[in-house]
Amino acid sequence: MKKKLAAVLAIAVLVLAGASAQLMLGVSGALPMDSSMSATEIKDAFTSGDFIMYGGFLELGMGNIGFGASVNTYSYYDSFFGQEMMVIDGDAFVSYHLFKAKAFLDPFAELGFGILGSQYASNTTVTAQDFLSASYYWYAAAGVGINLGPIGIFGKFAYNYALAQKVSYDDEYGNPQYYAAFDPYNTGSAYIPAFRITLGAKLIL
């Protein structure tokens, strides 16, 4: 009897949560950066589109709490490999919206876990095993959005805490090669940006 009651209560909670939930779909542009970038350089990057990772996201908001995931990509020519490279940044996150996700003014915070990896642009698969290099990371972000009915825009600033570098590429002698997960400047060093600025737009269903 207790198990049946628990099952009924669980179903009721899910139904009520689904009825009050807000599904948000959107597009975004993210600039991975470090502390050496000036405000002018950041503005110029978004204006020109240089080093901006473009992608999309979805988030399910239930009151003040939300759960979501995003994927952003960036392509550049790597002089070391001599070909076009693809950088993929994917993450899953939980968010807290101070005035709920659909409020006109939407201050929010996020905590998430992601993977940043690079592979040849000609590679059509996106599993972690196919990355030449990849880094897992935690991140915390704060941002603010403005919503006009079903349409919203937002900006957020994130701090990335990189975990150990995962290397899947060995040289001809079997020695691991540490190539950067994100290396548009062709430094050839393992690197995950400490910060990320994201601008985006969303549709609230």
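(the above was protein one; protein two follows)
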Amino acid sequence: MLRTSLIALTLLAACTPAPSQAPENAETTAEAPAVNPDAAALTATPQAGAWTLRTDEGVTAAGFGPPESEYLLTISCEMPSGKLTLIYEHELVPDQDTTLRVITPVQTLDLAARSFNEGLPSVTAEVANGAAEKTALISMLGAPTDRFAVEVNGESTAFPWADEVSQALIACR
């Protein structure tokens, strides 16, 4: 009798489905999208102006600025070499090596840069064709987003995203 009861319990256990390994409330435990700790820079009002796209002699460039003014940010692709260049209007005296940070809601990318103060002050980052940062930059800014920010020496500026940004970056893919 004991043996029959054990066999019956074993069969019952074998036929009973195992409890689900899924959490009871999958909605509350689903992984939230990654949030960039630097994303606070994106809360600033984006600069006023518009993006324009130019292609000339193997260079495709997206420039952002107010109408009839100098660009505040330029993203260019030298198609023969595959090099990407970002030029951000920003004064950092004296001329020096620095970091230009590109910030999106989910990622920050630090680019080696150099400040130049002759003429219009700017910070320039050049990303060579084979550099790991190139793929990351194209991935970050090649897809539509509401805005992104550029930061140098702790000062950031928010820019609206536009298709011209993607076109300049994809030209160097």
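Reviewer note on protein two: The chain has four helices and nine strands.
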